[in-house]
Amino acid sequence: MITSRAARPAPSVSAALVMAALALLAVLLAPLAAVPAAAAESAGPGAPAGRTAAPLRVMFVGDSITQGRTGDTTYRYWVWRALAQQSVPVTFVGPTTGLRGGDTYLRTDLGFATAHAAAGGSGYADHLPLLRKRVRTHRPDVIVLGLGFNDARAHGAAQILADARRYLRRTWRIDPRIRFVLNEVTTSSVTKQFTNNRRLAVTRGLRRLAAGEDRVQVARIVSRGARAWVPEVHTYDGTHPTPTGETSIAHGVVRALLRHGIVPEARRVFTRREWDPRLAVADVAVDGLRLTASVPTWRSVSARDLQVLALDPEGRTVAISDWTAAARVSVSVPGPGTYSLRVVARRGTMTGVPGPATPVQVD
Description:
Helix 4 packs across helix 10, helix 6 (131-138) packs across helix 7 (157-174) and helix 7 (157-174) packs parallel to helix 8 (193-210). The protein is α/β, with parallel strands linked by helices. The longest helix is centred in the middle third of the chain and has 18 residues, at 157-174. It folds into two domains: 56-259, 3-Layer(aba) Sandwich (Rossmann fold), CATH 3.40.50; 283-362, Immunoglobulin-like, CATH 2.60.40. The chain contains ten helices and 14 strands.
């Protein structure tokens, strides 16, 4: 027999207590219902819905253009800066943090993570044997691959592209989710034309390699149009980038990350920048009107030579020393008074911004 709702007996006291407890529990759990949605909003590009994003792990693999020389900012910094400005959670990973010749980065602000897997003078033959260990140890989500420049001195484009494909295949055997940014191979004004032709052929081949593979994007550096790579403009020695050249490479990398869905907006990264090594005078020896400035840290920025400027209290340059490849630089001032000494460093075709002023009293 089916009993109507009205005919059902009233719940017992114990049943009523259970129902009240369940109602109270529902009230307490209600605020948590929104948590999955909030977590999904905080998830990074490609992260599963409902899971808070861990910082994206990026590993830079390359030669001296990627590693940088002591006294550089490196294009890696400008990539980091672009990601920080768009609040992309990221960390750079790799087995080393150093630069060629030292460890002096000109800029490390915004929490720049200096780790990388680049080495000056290297090519695919150097990096392929290290691939398995590096991927398993550093667990990158993205690899920025900047090889081929040195390979072109000895190998044709077909072999270099075969090595690039080999690098991708071996990486995906270990972790098929890893995405790649393939840097176009830059050209040089101090190597033979047939070598540059190989580099240009590799760049064309990289675009074909990436076609139809959504895990690969090419950083357009050489083929970017009006702002493409010009060694006479973007390097200080025909090969290695000036600060302007660094931002040019970084611009291509960030645009590739944009196409991967990692960077939310297409903001400009390329800018014209001066080299600012910020060398300061450590001490000054005064001998009449002759001032000898000591600059012991000049080699830490890979300077080729130095010059010292003497300025009067109004900021006018009243004396300039000769260029010298030494840590002590002498300059003669026109007479007694108060002066400021500023150091200028030079590397290749790149002359740095004068460093901070050091006051000197000449009696």
